[in-house]
Amino acid sequence: MGMNRYLYDGSADGLLSAIAWILAEESDPEQVALAARKDTLFEDGLFIGTDATLAESLFSRLRKQLPDVAHTLYFCMLAEKEGIETSLLHYIFLAFTHGDKINDYLTHAAVRDIVSISKKAARELHRMKGLLRFEKLRDGAYLAKMEPDHNIIHPLAYHFRTRLKAQHWFLYDVKRRTAARWSNGTLQFGTIEQFTTPALSDDEKQVQALWQTFFKTIAIPDRKNARLQKSNMPMKYWKYLTEKQGE
Question: Which whole-number Å values give the CA distances from 241 to 77, 140, 155, 156, 247, in the listed order?
Answer without folding.
Answer: 14, 31, 9, 13, 11
